[in-house]
Amino acid sequence: MNAALEELARIFVGTSGAAVRVRDRLAVLASLGVPVLLSGEPGSGRECAARALHRAGPWRHVPFTRAACAGGVTPPPRVAGVFYLDAIESLPPDDQRAWRAWLERHLRANRVRVIASTGLDLARLPEFDPALAARLARFQVSLPPLRERAEDVPLLARRLLHQHAERLGCKPPQLGDAAIRRLARHAWPGNVRELSEVLERLAARATDGPVAAAEVGRALRADAPSIAELRARGARRERDELVAALDVCRGNLAAAARRLGLSRSAVVYRARKHGLLRGPDEG
């Protein structure tokens, strides 16, 4: 596997035929300076794909700028870098014409790259500039919804669970077979974004042991705790565990690190984050 495909495999996870086709297509386009249109449902990974295009190709060393098109966005005065236009179908007509002229002027100089995303067929939108739509659609990548690559859910779920647990500062729980089957049965109308939110709720759980199917069901409910609430819970739990370990170890950071199964530097970082260590390192 070449470097571009390795980078794309880390970002666009899956072994299904749909996932492999998308990665292969992105790998080809990553090496080119052409504009790319990423189409797909909300939550299907359009921004992840845009960042993969940027990071997997020769343009990875230039700035990546994301612009939300809702409400309008005009071309930048500088003419170097990669520009990601999110939800380009919502770009006002005047801005569409400005971007078309800007692209025609600067693409020939090979100093810019534009990646756009949409959830609609631009050619079917009467208010969208047909010349801009045609230029973008020449190199298009359709991102499949998660329900069309259900076999990727187990691998994707484990990867996301580990990432969320690492960010929350907790040990990643194990997904039992029943939990995996429950995740695979869900239709995922919110696609990978919805799966990521569910896995973040499961990563922030306070209990030990493997995740059960019933816990997955609770995390899928509309009245499940918000992500912000779960993050706050995780921070409180992390602080409580650190305080308890430092108390048992009489403030010795190295001993507390061994007790928690962490490196000493990780304990120092957490202690400072939670306001438990303000002066020079002790212990």
Strand content: 5-15%
Strand order of the largest sheet: 2-3-4-1-5
Order of helix and strand elements from N to C terminus = HHEHEEHEHEHHHHHHH
CATH class of the largest domain: Alpha Beta
Q: What's the gyration radius in Å?
A: 23 Å
User: Looking at CATH, which topology of the largest domain would you report?
Assistant: Rossmann fold
Observed structural traits:
283 residues; alpha/beta; Rossmann fold; Helicase, Ruva Protein, domain 3; five-stranded parallel beta sheet; 50% helix
Structural account:
The mean pLDDT is 84. The chain folds into three domains: 3-144, Rossmann fold (3-Layer(aba) Sandwich), CATH 3.40.50; 147-224, Helicase, Ruva Protein, domain 3; 230-273. Helix 6 (153-168) crosses helix 8. It is globular and about 70 Å long. It has twelve helices and five strands. Helix 4 links the parallel strand 3 and strand 4. 50% of the residues lie in helices and 9% in strands. The protein has a five-stranded parallel β-sheet with strand order 2-3-4-1-5, covered by helices on one side. The protein has helices at 3-11, 17-30, 46-56, 93-106, 130-137, 153-168, 177-185, 191-203, 213-220, 227-248, 253-260, 264-273, and strands at 36-39, 64-68, 81-86, 112-118, 140-142. It is an alpha/beta fold.
